[in-house]
Amino acid sequence: MIAKIKEVFSDINKEMKKVSWPTKQQLRESTLVVLGTCAVITVFVWIVDVAMAFLMKKVIF
Fold this sequence. Notes:
Structural class: mainly alpha
Number of strands: 0
């Protein structure tokens, strides 16, 4: 059992060495893309929400 656990951690270590880690610049750029996308989607959902609320008020009243 302990041998299998050691083997699992050994395999994890080997796989982690194969990972291509991003540079600080790449990480910064990716973070800005994610934040920008979230901001755009947030504004879009807000606009749709306001429009739907306006339409619902017109239909109901």
